[in-house]
């Protein structure tokens, strides 16, 4: 039987090994079964007399016992052979290898008649799986920027169907060339092999060299009409933001829309701010715009008032036209928050100063002698309210008033001033932006003598009274009079002057400003710490979001991004967030089509033949049936004492 | 729980606890009530009840004429039948039946094989019932437990008031040992010169054969009754398949595959053997009764009384 049949299930050597081991075990058990059960009877002699009459049949008894053992071994052989799934050689020769390349690019998300193209592709895939013969094997590869093997080469329908059900859209264009290279590695020889591409045909032409010798065919999935509104696309081609240079805590954003329609398209743009979990949002702004035919439109968003860390822009047509690529209708923006400005106040309590600082939402203040909000960090700005006293090192210092004699001060002092005011000031200086200190009158003060690189920003007569400069210990702004000895606190210019001065002295912000990554590429990410691994979470707030551990080398990691959205990479209690947006103008330009052309040859890929299930004989079922029948007859005969 | 009738009757001189418990198991109140009714039944069956009413066929100096015998020298001339001599001129002596009380011997096989199928329990119950009837009729009742030799013995006793002595003795019997009926019965016959009715209660499972023992009893002029107690369980084991049979008395082993067919053959063989025993007993003029261990003892006793003629 082995000569006529090949085993498709468990390998023959393994089956032979199992048979040998189990045969020995079975024979031993059979011998053990001959160990008679003890039975106490009142008078053995009576039984013996009966046995004497039947002793003549003992050889036949032994033969029957041997027959029973042979029956058991035959049963074992049948069951093991059934496990081996024997197939005839003819069936073995007909066995096929089917490579199913499924497009999971965003264009497959296009909804046609209640189903997406991917849903329809899944139905077709299931049909192909259903028609696999017993010896056929299939593999499913999803096509996006990088082809992904969803299953190994298998005949297990459950595995294949499970993989089909789990197929989902990836936010990158399908790279058919890479898919074909992978298929060639899976099927090195074209004999009895099929490579079937299922998709909407929105790919670049296949190079002749790539398709050469491959048993390649293309099954278009619900592409609709080649010329019609169904092939138009409107989407976001860019959504970015940058910080204001003078106020790094504020952003200005820019939204770029793209249209492939031949006529003007009216769209509605909705901006939403997401909550910290990125799951829910609230609308910030709704506006309408008209896109030029087959063109771009740049929409500046000067200030994202009320925006949180996550901002989402969504665009949709309001003119009833079609939009075949839904994935680019949504874009995300990450506005990374900056830590608040830490301001240390040195001086007696001053309600005018405190009141002015209360208007600053991004400022945290504390006084000399109090615990710092973040003890391990130096203050960003120290304000000496009155004569300066020794204070911790800081990035910058604001001196409100001249020092007492001998106290540290970055400037030399000039003559004493009495009854003076702001006669001149640098109107283009950031400190005096929207500030008019002309009415300010001071009782007394000192002229300041600026250094060579210092800037005198305000004067009383010819005497500088406001100077800005930089020393090795940090930048500074010095005012030549104590505001408490003036009416400066009572003027509207005071809080504005303080605001301008603080943010001028605040450290310059550098680093990430929410630049978006692109899915379908390798993402090189910086991690919060230098641990050997990190946890990558995302897309945040979306059902497809998941967590996975990634390896980290020198505080950097590289992962292949598949989906657009917000992400977080965490190590311990530290985390960094980033965003990925799907912008692919090339895919938006690639229209679905019913054929895939082979470059330079002028030919197109053929359609696959209709799925057809081969007529096969299930031998293992037959063997199992025979084994069951034998088992039943053995049981029947055993209980009637034929075999033993 | 209220003490049973047996416990109350045993009174101060009660035997050890174990014996009392065994007695309660064997002879409960219902058993004793049945005994009484059986005794009444036996009285109705035996007419002219009085002391020594059961007769031995021993001729001697009684008052009731039995037969004539020719005179030989040395005979008591007072017994010459004068009327015969006057009429016929022959010297014949008048022979009278000697009236004496009957000796009842219950020979219980207590070998290990009697434990199977509660055969010993049935033998004990039958002995108690028949013994009570004997005691009620003022017969001398004795019980001998047989193993491979004489094992235990209740000396002859008489009178209804001795019932509980009989019951206490029976309650002490426990199965064990081998069967050797020929040796045991031969020794019993030698040890008991007073002849009487010997009731043998046994399963007749004796590797050496039971015939020699019965021959010995008959030879010593005992009136013999064999109560052959059998059990269905002996011939119908619950298990099937390969088995190693172990003899309960000799521990001898025999390997066999138990099948329904073999069990049928076994039952047929056992039936044939019973018929052979019956024929043997008939040939020896020995009363034979085949009794099932599961049969109600009172029905068995009534059967023995009414149809078997055991206690006539």
Jot down its keywords:
heterodimer, A: 644 residues, alpha+beta, Rossmann fold, 5 domains, eight-stranded mixed beta sheet, five-stranded mixed beta sheet, 12 helices, 33 strands, elongated, B: 312 residues, alpha/beta, 2 domains, six-stranded mixed beta sheet, three-stranded antiparallel beta sheet, 10 helices, 39% helix
Write the layout of secondary structure elements.
The complex is a heterodimer of chains A (644) and B (312).
Chain A: E1 5-7, H1 12-33, E2 37-41, H2 44-54, H3 58-83, E3 86-88, H4 89-94, E4 97-103, E5 111-112, E6 115-116, H5 117-130, E7 137-143, E8 148-149, H6 157-165, H7 176-186, E9 193-199, H8 208-211, E10 216-220, E11 234-243, E12 251-259, E13 265-274, E14 281-291, E15 296-301, E16 310-317, E17 330-334, E18 341-346, H9 351-358, E19 363-367, E20 381-385, E21 396-400, E22 412-421, E23 424-425, E24 441-449, E25 455-460, E26 463-471, E27 474-479, H10 493-505, E28 522-526, E29 533-538, E30 546-551, E31 556-560, E32 565-571, E33 574-580, H11 585-589, H12 619-639
Parallel strand pairs in A: 4-7, 4-9, 9-10, 18-19, 18-20, 20-21, 21-27
Antiparallel strand pairs in A: 1-3, 5-6, 7-8, 11-12, 12-15, 13-14, 13-16, 16-17, 22-24, 23-25, 25-26, 26-27, 28-31, 29-30, 29-32, 32-33
Helix pairs in contact in A: 1-3, 3-12, 5-6, 9-10
Chain B: H1 5-10, H2 17-26, H3 29-45, E1 59-60, E2 64-70, H4 82-88, E3 92-97, E4 103-109, H5 119-136, E5 140-146, E6 150-157, H6 163-171, H7 181-191, E7 197-202, H8 211-219, E8 223-230, E9 241-247, E10 253-258, H9 260-283, E11 287-292, H10 297-308
Parallel strand pairs in B: 4-5, 4-7, 7-8, 8-11
Antiparallel strand pairs in B: 1-3, 2-3, 5-6, 9-10
Helix pairs in contact in B: 2-6, 3-5, 3-10, 5-6, 5-10, 7-8
């Amino acid at each position: 039987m082995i000569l006529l049949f090949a085993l498709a299930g468990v390998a023959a050597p393994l089956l032979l090994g199992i048979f040998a081991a189990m045969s020995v075990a079975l024979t031993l058990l059979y011998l053990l079964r001959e160990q008679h059960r003890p039975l106490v009877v009142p008078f053995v002699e009576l039984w013996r007399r009966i046995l004497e009459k039947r002793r003549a049949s003992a050889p036949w008894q032994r033969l029957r016992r041997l027959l029973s053992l042979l029956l058991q071994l035959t049963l074992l052989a049948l069951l093991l052979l059934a496990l081996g799934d024997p197939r005839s050689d003819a069936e073995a020769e007909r066995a096929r290898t089917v490579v199913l390349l499924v497009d999971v690019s965003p264009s497959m998300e296009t909804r046609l008649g209640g189903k997406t193209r991917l849903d329809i592709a899944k139905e077709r895939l299931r049909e192909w799986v259903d028609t696999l013969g017993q010896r056929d094997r299939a593999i499913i590869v999803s096509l996006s920027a990088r082809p992904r093997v969803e299953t190994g080469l298998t005949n297990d329908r459950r595995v294949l169907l499970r993989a089909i059900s789990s197929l989902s859209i990836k936010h990158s264009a399908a790279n058919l060339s890479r898919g074909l290279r992978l298929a060639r590695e899976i099927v090195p020889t074209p004999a009895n092999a099929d490579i079937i591409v299922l998709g909407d045909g929105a790919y670049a032409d296949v190079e002749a060299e790539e398709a050469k010798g491959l048993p390649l065919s293309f099954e278009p999935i619900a592409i609709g009409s080649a010329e019609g509104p169904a092939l138009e696309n409107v989407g976001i081609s860019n959504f970015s933001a940058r910080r204001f240079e003078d106020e790094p805590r504020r952003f200005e954003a820019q939204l770029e829309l793209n249209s492939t329609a031949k006529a003007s398209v009216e769209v509605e743009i909705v901006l939403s701010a997401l909550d910290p979990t990125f799951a829910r949002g609230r609308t910030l702004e709704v506006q309408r715009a008209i896109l030029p035919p087959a063109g771009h439109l740049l929409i500046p968003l000067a200030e994202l008032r009320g925006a949180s860390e996550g901002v989402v822009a969504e665009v949709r047509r309001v003119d009833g036209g079609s939009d075949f690529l839904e994935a680019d209708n949504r874009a995300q923006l990450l506005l990374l928050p900056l830590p608040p400005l830490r301001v240390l106040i040195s001086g007696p309590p001053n309600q005018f100063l405190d009141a002015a600082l209360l208007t600053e939402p991004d400022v945290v203040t504390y006084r000399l002698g109090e615990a710092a909000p973040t003890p391990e960090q130096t203050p960003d700005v120290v304000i000496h309210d009155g004569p300066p006293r020794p204070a911790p090192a800081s990035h910058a210092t604001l001196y409100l008033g001249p020092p007492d004699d001998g106290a540290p001060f970055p400037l030399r002092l000039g003559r004493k001033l009495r009854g003076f005011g702001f006669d001149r000031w640098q109107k283009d200086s950031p400190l005096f932006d929207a500030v008019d200190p002309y009415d300010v009158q001071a009782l007394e003060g000192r002229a300041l003598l600026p250094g060579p690189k210092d800037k005198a920003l305000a004067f009383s007569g010819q005497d500088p009274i406001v100077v800005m400069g930089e020393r090795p210990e940090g930048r500074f702004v010095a005012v030549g009079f104590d505001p408490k000895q003036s009416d400066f606190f009572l003027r509207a210019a005071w809080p504005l002057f303080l605001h301008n001065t603080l943010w001028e002295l605040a450290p310059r912000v550098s680093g990430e400003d929410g630049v978006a990554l692109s899915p379908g590429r390798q993402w090189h990410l910086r991690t919060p710490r230098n641990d050997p691994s990190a946890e990558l979470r995302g897309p945040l707030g979306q059902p497809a979001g998941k967590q996975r551990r990634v390896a980290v080398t020198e505080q950097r990691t590289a992962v292949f991004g598949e989906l657009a959205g917000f992400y977080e990479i965490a190590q311990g209690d530290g985390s960094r967030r980033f965003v990925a947006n799907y912008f692919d103008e090339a895919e938006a330009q690639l229209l679905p089509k019913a054929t895939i052309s082979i470059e330079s040859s002028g030919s197109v890929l053929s359609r696959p033949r209709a799925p057809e299930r081969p007529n096969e004989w299930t031998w293992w079922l037959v063997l199992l049936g025979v084994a069951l029948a034998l088992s039943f007859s053995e049981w029947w005969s055993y209980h009637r004492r034929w075999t033993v | 729980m209220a003490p049973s009738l047996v416990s109350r009757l045993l009174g101060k001189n009660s035997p050890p606890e174990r014996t009392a418990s065994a007695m309660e198991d064997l002879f409960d109140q219902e058993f004793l009530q049945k005994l009484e009714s059986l005794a009444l039944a036996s009285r109705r069956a035996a007419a002219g009840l009085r002391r020594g009413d059961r007769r031995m066929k021993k001729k001697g100096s009684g008052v009731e004429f039995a037969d004539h015998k020719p005179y030989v020298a040395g005979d008591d001339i007072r017994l010459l039948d004068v009327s015969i001599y006057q009429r016929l001129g022959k010297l014949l002596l008048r022979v009278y039946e000697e009236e004496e009380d009957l000796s009842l011997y219950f020979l219980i096989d207590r070998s290990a094989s009697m434990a199977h199928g509660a055969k010993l329990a049935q033998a004990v119950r039958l002995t108690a019932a028949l013994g009570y009837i004997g005691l009620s009729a003022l017969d001398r009742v004795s019980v001998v437990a047989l193993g491979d030799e004489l094992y235990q013995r209740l000396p002859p006793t008489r009178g209804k008031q001795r019932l509980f002595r009989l019951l206490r003795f029976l309650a002490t019997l426990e199965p064990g040992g081998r069967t050797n009926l020929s040796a045991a019965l031969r020794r019993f016959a030698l040890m008991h010169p007073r002849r009487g009715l010997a009731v043998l209660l046994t399963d007749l499972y004796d590797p050496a054969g039971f015939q020699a023992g019965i021959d010995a009893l008959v030879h010593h002029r005992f009136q013999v009754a064999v109560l052959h107690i059998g059990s269905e369980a002996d011939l119908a084991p619950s298990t099937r398949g390969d088995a190693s049979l172990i003899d309960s008395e000799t521990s001898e082993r025999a390997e066999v595959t138990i099948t329904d067919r073999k069990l049928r053959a076994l039952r047929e063989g056992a039936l044939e053997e019973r018929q052979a025993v019956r024929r043997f007993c008939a040939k020896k003029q020995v009363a034979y009764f085949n009794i099932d261990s599961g049969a109600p003892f009172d029905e068995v006793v009534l059967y023995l009384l009414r149809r078997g003629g055991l206690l006539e």
